[in-house]
Design brief:
Belongs to the CTL (choline transporter-like) family. By secondary structure, this protein is mainly α. It is built from 19 helices and six strands. The two termini are 50 Å apart.
């Protein structure tokens, strides 16, 4: 018993992998794994589809895209197709609005007549006193385009006072700009001295109007900026596409060059890092010596919030000097004692380049992942939009002018139908039927919040599943490369396609299981972020400390689960075991070689970071010089377009280049991780004999001082 316990304690991470004469790469004869989770995932997806169908049946995104007028009809479609903008007769009554998007989703409640117009008013206007003369033709003084469509100014018998009292026409107009298809005051022009509202002067009127709309416009002309941005994209879209193509070519070129210069590049980066730290040591010592001669000490400045002051005392530079020396010593010691493992990492990185060269279709797989992710995002966004606009609109009878005779009896609680509403049925002459809110009654409407949560969970689960599918697919393809004894003759045909369908057919449940674990952690992080946002005004140091600790712990947990899932998917792709067994085997294998794992991971991260920096920086600098006109091209067809914001295409190219580089380099990173796990398994399974030869490349055998012994027939 004692010997058995001692043996178990000496192998805390399990026994080394044993030789299997039948093993020669990803197992083809496998069975379905994690069937329960697969069934759960399929049921969940079915429910997700049902939620989308219900949202499509009950929702109406036109509530967000198109505004409604007072009669309940949409502006910009149907009978108002040529009238896309909503015009408020008295915008001062809409001061309760704070967000046009939130208002359009929760009910745009503004107690004034709203009508659809072809274009927003562009000039100041007040009624002409002559229009109030009895018998005056109102069509000569009022603009029919901005009046209620139920009144015909040419034939009406109403007086100007009655028209204004019933809000059949606006009592004033001012320059407006469309924002989200609604007309809001524009403050680009000075108010005329004769344009006054509310009994004040023109300046007071302007402040009154500005106070009612400043939260919406934020002091900027949103239309002008939007138009300029659109113009810039129309002028530069083809140059942006060219830049993205250049980023793709640079990414591929970098991966190709790694096959030949990975070792040189890594050693240059390592030596460069050591040289930079050495320069920092010299510079900090020089600063310390200079300040020591001047006699500047920390006692002279004491404690201060001016951090720049600490740069003028010798103690600061002495501390930095000591820290840099410690870092330099640590790096040198690591370089000396881990040089063999660094060489192994370099050899694996070079082998990854060869694997990608033999399986070029792997570079196209990120496009498949991108398409699937776009579908997930689009489905989530559309479902959220349709859910947010679910429910029939409700209308209430209100008095546009509560001070008018007999209007004090209008409580605003009476429901109405705008298409059948007749104001003459009421004693109050300024009654109107306006939109109140969306109906929240009924089983579906009462559970909209729960359905939105279901939508978010479905979105995260599907996103993580798509990423897991891509990792498992690539892992299977690259594993088939490593375990091909004679390369490239023994590499199977269409390895990426075979691995993709193998993962879908047998391991949907395992991939969904890993994705579910990650989704749960991400949901917890979202809840913590929400609570942190709600508690940001709470001045309780204990609460803030606990919240910070929880956020940090779950951030670390998410990173660890992503790392574990990634390696579990590799083991699933190779051996076809379920998720838990694969995760356990991968974790134990990595822990048995933990130093190699750390070295390879950090070197790969450093190399790929340098590659991303090269691609993004190169494209960004090229775009900057081109769009700022610093690159002179004599051909007029290739001249720099004149833009309002030259930084817009530059920023677009930088973000797009990063996404392209990340997509290509993620394939490379997956290849390195897969080959590394296969390499560790190869070391444990085989010994280089004729019956158990190594599958690793000769470069790795040379580093490890290993070689395959020829069999007897070859020896003869």
């Amino acid at each position: 018993m004692g010997k058995k316990k001692e043996k178990e304690s000496s192998e805390p991470y399990g026994k080394a992998a044993q030789f299997d004469p039948l093993f020669s790469g990803p197992i083809k004869n496998r069975s379905c794994t994690d069937i329960i989770c697969c069934a759960l995932f399929l049921v969940f997806i079915l429910g997700y589809i049902i939620v989308g169908i219900l949202a499509w049946l009950y929702g109406d995104p036109r509530e967000v895209i198109y505004p409604r007028n007072t009669t309940g009809f949409y502006c910009g479609i149907g009978e108002n197709q040529e009238k896309p903008f909503l015009f408020y007769f008295d915008v001062l009554k809409c001061t309760s609005l704070t967000s046009i998007l939130a208002a359009s989703m929760n009910g745009l409640q503004c107690p004034t007549t709203q009508t659809c117009v072809k274009e927003c008013p562009t000039r100041f206007w007040l009624p002409d006193p002559a229009s109030f003369v009895p018998g005056a033709k109102l069509n000569k003084f009022f603009d029919q385009n901005f009046c209620d469509p139920t009144i015909d100014l040419a034939t009406t018998s109403l007086t100007a006072s009655q028209v204004l009292s019933k809000e059949l026409c606006p009592r004033y107009r001012l320059p407006m700009a469309p924002l989200f298809n609604r007309c809001f005051p524009s403050f680009t022009e000075l108010y005329p001295s004769n344009f006054t509202l509310g009994g004040g002067n023109s300046n007071q009127t302007q402040e009154l109007v500005k106070g009612a709309t400043e939260d919406l416009l934020g002091g900027i002309n949103a239309k002008e900026i939007g138009v300029k941005i659109f113009e810039d994209f129309t002028k530069s879209w083809y140059w942006i596409i060219i830049g993205l193509v250049i980023a793709m070519l640079l990414s591929i070129l970098f991966l190709v060059l790694l096959r030949f210069f990975a070792g040189i590049l890594i050693w240059i980066i390592i030596v460069g890092l050591i040289v930079v730290i050495a320069y920092g040591i010299w510079h900090t010592y020089w600063e310390y010596s200079r300040l020591d001669k001047e006699g500047a000490t920390i006692a002279d400045i004491g404690l201060t919030i001016n951090l720049s002051a600490y740069g003028n005392v010798k103690e600061t530079w002495l501390a930095i000097f000591i820290i840099l020396i410690v870092l330099e010593v640590i790096f040198l010691l690591l370089l000396i004692f881990l040089r063999k493992r660094i060489r192994i990492a370099i050899a694996l990185i070079g082998e990854a380049s060869k694997a990608i060269a033999h399986i070029m279709s792997s570079l196209a797989y990120p496009l498949c992942t991108f398409v699937l992710l776009v579908i997930c995002v689009a489905y989530w966004a559309l479902t959220a939009l349709y859910l947010a606009t679910s429910g029939e609109p409700l209308y209430r009878v209100i008095a546009l002018n509560t001070s008018a005779p007999n209007c004090d009896t209008i409580s605003g609680n009476e429901s109405c139908a705008p298409t059948a509403f007749n104001a003459s049925d009421y004693d109050c002459q300024t009654t109107s039927c306006i939109f109140y809110k969306y109906n929240s009654e009924g089983l579906f409407q009462r559970n909209l919040f729960n359905l939105q949560i279901y939508n978010v969970v479905g979105f995260l689960w599907c996103m993580n599943f798509v990423i897991a599918l891509g990792q498992c697919c690539l892992a299977g393809a690259f594993a088939s490369y490593y375990w091909a004894f004679k390369k490239p003759q023994d590499i199977p045909y269409f390895p990426v396609t075979s691995s993709f369908f193998r993962a879908l057919r047998y391991h949907t449940g395992s991939l969904a299981f890993g994705a579910l674990i990650l989704t749960i952690i991400q949901i917890i992080r979202i809840v913590l972020e929400y609570l942190d946002h709600k508690l940001k005004n709470v001045h309780n140091p204990v609460t803030k400390f606990l919240m910070c600790c929880l956020k940090c712990c779950f951030w670390c947990l998410e990173k660890f689960i992503k790392f574990l899932n990634r390696n579990a998917y590799i083991m699933i792709a190779i051996y076809g075991k379920n998720f838990c067994v694969s995760a356990k085997n991968a974790f134990k294998l990595l822990m048995r070689n933990v130093v190699r794992v750390v070295v390879l991971d950090k070197i790969t991260d450093l190399l790929l970071f340098f590659g991303k920096l090269l691609v993004v920086g190169g494209v960004g600098v090229l775009a900057f010089f081109f769009f700022t006109g610093r690159i002179r091209i004599p051909d007029p067809n290739f001249r720099t377009p004149e833009l309002n914001y030259y930084w817009l295409p530059i920023l677009t190219l930088v973000v797009g280049s990063y996404m392209i580089a990340h997509g290509f380099f993620s394939v490379y990173n997956m290849c390195v991780d897969t080959l590394f796990l296969c390499f560790l398994e190869d070391l444990e399974r085989n010994d280089g004999s004729a019956n158990k030869p190594y599958y690793m490349p000769k470069s790795l055998m040379k580093i490890l001082n290993k070689k395959n012994k020829p069999n007897k027939q070859e020896a003869k």
